[in-house]
Amino acid sequence: MKILREVPPPQPKNNFVAIDLEMFGLNPNQLHRPTSGEFACLSIATDPNTVYVVTDKEQLYQTYINLTDAVHCFHHAKFDVTHLRRWIGYPPRKRLWDTMLIERIMWGGYFDLYALDHLARRWLDIRLNKSQQKTFENATELSEEQILYAAMDASVTRQIAVEQRKVIRKKDFIVWRDIDLPALWAYMDFQGFAINVAEWKALAEKNENRAKEIEEGLPFNPRSPKQVKDYLSKKGFKRLTSTGEETLNKFITQYPDVPARELAEQVLECRKYHTRSSRYGFKFIEKYLEHDIQFDVDMIYCDYHTIGAETGRTASSSPNMQNIPARDTNDFRNCFIARPDNVLLVCDYSQQEPGVSAHLSQDEKLIDIINSGQDIYISVAKNIFNEEIKKGDNRRKTMKSLVLGTNYGLSPWGLASRENITKAEAGKLINKYFRTFPGVAMWVGRQSKRKDYVETAMGRRIWLNRYSGQVERNALNAPIQGTAADMTKLAVARLHQNWKYPYPFPVVATVHDEIVLDVPKKHAQKVASFVKKTMEDVAQEVCPSVIIKADVVIGSTWGAKE
User: Do 149 and 89 share a domain, yes or no?
Assistant: First the structure.
């Protein structure tokens, strides 16, 4: 390998060139933020044996110009491009290849590891020495060993990209070109989410005190699995195997009249508040808080991963905004606020997964219910119980568990445990649901026999582990979850591509079927209409046989939509 410490010459159109950025002194807690560290070098592999290493950031612009017509190959482009934008304009481009994301598209579910050294071993049968990686954290000057390391990373990235290009399926490339690449550019332009720090701290203290209060009232340590198991076993939970949440809920349902039931409920409640106070408490603020000088407001900037699960669903980290508690409380979401003179648009798909299920199964009756705009769970209840029920009826909740549960092979025991009914009653409900919607039953039967891979409506492939006990469940759930994820990502990408307002792209969060924007009050209604239409148009494109609506709520906090 020839290493040249100079700017690479202009590259031919569509030549694959690999680009790798190295930085000194990055904050390890927020590698995705261009707020720490200094430029170390940029390595550019233009052919299998030649790597250019640029060490002067003043030469980055000319380097970019000389690479304009080439296909830029990165491993984890979001990191490199985010930091390169500190010094040069780097607009969204179609000629980009991310070996990490391409690998996830090609092999989601087949492999678990996607770091550069993992791909090097799989594609090139070589083992990368990554020992130099950590030396950049405290260094201020490049060593020869670091230059060699950086050059090798670029060379290997290019070789992997070329090998991937040789065998990638057409469907895989379309998923990259039409969904994940446009979404990648959108995620890079996400804004930070403003937060009310005083309210967050008050909530953290409240949760901490509540956990302590419950713990002090128990005759054992609720965080000690051994003590919990021993005590609950003595108080009526016979043959208690573990103290996990699922097991305790199972025993609570199974033994409703023994003293252990109430104690187990208190254990679960104590754990809940303890987790909230530790995971979403004072350390959360200390670790991730930034202050926006322009708006004079405190902000949280998390790192969105274009592909975070084998189904293609996104994920977030540093911090994980997609795990902020919302199911039984909006307290946390109410701490996330609009910036001054702005409002939040909280937009989500209505009945997204049932709609996707109807499209994939092509069950005519389910499609008619979705397209009628009725509440699907109330409509299913009418078919199951032969009577009209209202939204507050507990049977609607049971129908929701039933409809969504069939998407991942929910067993009669699982439904019984969740809805506090007998196993026999649960079995009858599942059987009646399948008789009422035979298209769903047929689709479930076909999918459960798949042992190699399944696909989303957009053609994203999800590999199945045929030796896993979860293979049948994954064969059912993966196409539905994956299609829903593709839909939301494509909506975010379209919003970004078509953004024409005179201020930066205002999306501040996405959580599965939900997109949150922070916009000026005077534009709120217009933007809300634009977002709603974009989301619904995308849904129609992804699942053309059903009508999946989008709802938009305008408010001052993330908790505006209950």
Answer: yes
Integer-rounded Cα radius of gyration of the chain: 26
CB atoms within 10 A of CB 440: 22
Q: Within a domain: residue 394? A: no
- The residues facing 455 across adjacent strands are 461
**Spatial distance between the Cα atoms of 511 and 109, rounded to a whole number of angstroms:** 21
Q: Please give the structure tokens belonging to residue 426.
A: 């649960």
3-state secondary structure of 82: helix
Residue 50 is assigned to a structural domain of this protein: yes
Domain of 263, in residue numbers: 197-282
Question: Per residue in 321-352, pLDDT tens?
Answer: 999 987 666 799 999 999 999 999 999 999 99
Angstrom CA distances, 384 to 137, 248, 260, 395, 434, stand at: 61, 30, 35, 10, 10
Closest CA to 151 of 72, 46, 57, 10: 46
Question: Could you tell me if 18 and 137 lie in one domain?
Answer: yes
| Residues 193, 299 contacting (CB under 8 angstroms) | yes
Looking only at the bridges linking them, the beta strands covering 50-54 and 2-4 are parallel
The reply to whether 98 and 223 lie within a common domain is no
Domain match, 530 and 498 both: yes
pLDDT in tens, 495-538: 999 999 999 999 999 999 999 999 999 999 999 999 999 999 99
pLDDT in tens, 45-83: 999 899 999 999 999 999 999 999 999 999 999 999 999
Task: Please tell me the distance from the alpha carbon of residue 397 to that of residue 10, in angstroms, as a whole number.
Answer: 62
| Gap between the Cα atoms of 324 and 361, Å rounded | 32
Helix, strand, coil distribution of the chain in percent, nearest 5: 50, 15, 35
How far is residue 49's CA from residue 46's CA, in Å, rounded to a whole number? 8
Pairwise CA distance, residues 1 & 127, whole Å: 16
Residue with tokens 């079995």: 427
User: 221: Cβ–Cβ under 8 A, 6 or more apart, which residues?
Assistant: 215, 227, 228
Spatial separation of the C-alpha atoms in residues 339 and 293, rounded to whole Å: 12
Rounded Cα distance, 538 and 561, in Å:
22
